[in-house]
Amino acid sequence: MTIEQVIQISQLAINTTLVVSTPVLVAGLVAGLLISVFQAVTQIHEMTLTFIPKIIAVGIATAIFFNMMMNALLDFTVQMLTTFPDYIR
To answer: Is the dihedral of CA 73, 75, 78, 82 positive or negative?
Structure first.
């Protein structure tokens, strides 16, 4: 296995990680931002108010983007398993 092959596999793994995690992270970020603005406007600083909406937003984003995330992971897995014999030589 050459350095170029290792770099190619690493880049593919990082890109797949970004594609899979971005929708969930963005949903959590947007929910957190909206909750923070709401707390700043109303001056209600309840700790449980921050967690429940974030959990719900992440759950909804996961449900919406689940098919896309699984397809990305499946494509990555298939590509790794089909090209792995080429890397061994």
So the answer is: negative
Length of the chain as a residue count: 89
- pLDDT tens, position by position, 45-56: 777 778 888 999
- For residue 36, give Cα distances in angstroms to 43, 48, 51: 10, 12, 11
**Angle of the 3-42 helix axis to the 47-88 helix axis, nearest 10:** 170
Res 49: pLDDT: 79
Residue 2 falls in which region: left (phi positive, over 0), alpha (psi -120 to 50) or beta? beta
In this prediction the pTM is: 0.78
